[in-house]
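Sample intake sheet
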Amino acid sequence: AHEGMCGGEVVAQWTVYQPDGVTTRPVEDLPIVRALRQGEPVQDVELVQVSERGARLYLLCNAAPIRDAAGKIVAGIAAWRDISERRRAEEEARWTARRHELVSLAAARLLGSDHPQGLVEDLCLQVMEFLECHVFFNFLLDERADRLRLNACAGLPPEEARSIESLDLELTVSGCVARDGRPILV
């Protein structure tokens, strides 16, 4: 399918990323190009391609030069193995372990503290980092006033934080969660 094309022309047809799935992998660092330039096989290089729909495909790539009878490199061959399921399982295991670590840390710190409110803000920042979110707020239910009171937040400008210090219970998703005692996915 790629007869007559050089390695660079073949690989230039796709954007290939480092294992992080974000950083573009330079063409000269691709396994087939390295194998052709070095004249030696390149084994088990992990890389990522992104489909037209944005799905990440994790690949384990091997490449080798093909030589003629005189030993001159005349072509190259590359083979990929889809390791996406393995990567997803590894990521899920890491995520679960980190979640358990955060829950344990939070419980231990809150139980051992005389000033839990100070810890809440620190824990908020850790949860934000873990979930890769940019804004976090925590409300407490004020049942006497039928309102939510802002307990902690991060990622909001101070004037926005002041504007949500007290919210009507019935007008917010957080209020409905507090009122009904069950999660809501929005």
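Comment: The beta strands are 16-17, 42-50, 56-67, 73-82, 136-142, 147-154, 166-168. The two ends are 47 Å apart (CA to CA).
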